[in-house]
């Protein structure tokens, strides 16, 4: 391959390279960038000539980077992050902000965390706009693609390139019609597994922690009905013998119509806030992350003792 002038590389081309490398897909990179796939292919071809390397090849229908590409992609990522930090304002004035932030989260965070964060934002940074996208179990990928700036949820990536702060701890409880015989007295493991369950699978291949603990104990639920979201459980459970298992803070607002009982498999888990190097050094995003943590910590101080939640 004939080498061309290295200064012909711009940041847009490097971002395209990083996206193809992270997503292992020309099509997904094009979708993220909002361009045609041919534009991505053209950019990669230009970079192939500049770096005198194939960069990517197809193997078994998959896009695979060369060893040289892996080095270039890491260096390009570092350069892009450094440049973004360079052009970011050294200070951030919440009252004057008019930017847009994107949060990836799901049903739990949208009901438990976002309302409090939005109230704090309206008071401190009324010009700041907030967008929310469903993360399902693809949150880390949304961060890599730049679709989301912050991920809030139970997923804590263990790969390099992610930063994380733990927001709160949570556990599961059982909800049912108040007339259900299981609504009074201790709910034993045997009674729990033998009961008729309406389970929430949250879509995708996500596995709730209490189900993992139950299976590790060699047990299995008697699942009668499965639904993808907890929405509407206060309409589905009354007048039936079904019970459901939900995180305590999701179940608590349903206590007016349903009975809440401790779950014999509480499945403790944590909610995290995750971001990447792209926003790590930004004063605005740093301020926002602090706002989320401080807001939730203040709300936790107002909560009753854990044993009083159910």
TrEMBL record:
Gene Ontology terms for molecular function: DNA binding; DNA-binding transcription factor activity
Record-annotated HTH lysR-type domain positions: 9-66
UniProt keyword Transmembrane helix, yes or no: no
KW Transcription regulation (keyword) present: yes
Cited Pfam families: HTH_1 (PF00126), LysR_substrate (PF03466)
Record-linked PANTHER family: HTH-TYPE TRANSCRIPTIONAL REGULATOR LEUO (PTHR30118:SF6), HTH-TYPE TRANSCRIPTIONAL REGULATOR LEUO-RELATED (PTHR30118)
This protein's UniProt keywords: DNA-binding, Transcription, Transcription regulation
Name the UniProt record assigns to this protein: LysR family transcriptional regulator
InterPro entries: LysR-type_TF (IPR050389), LysR_HTH_N (IPR000847), LysR_subst-bd (IPR005119), WH-like_DNA-bd_sf (IPR036388), WH_DNA-bd_sf (IPR036390), YidZ_PBP2 (IPR037402)
Family membership: Belongs to the LysR transcriptional regulatory family.
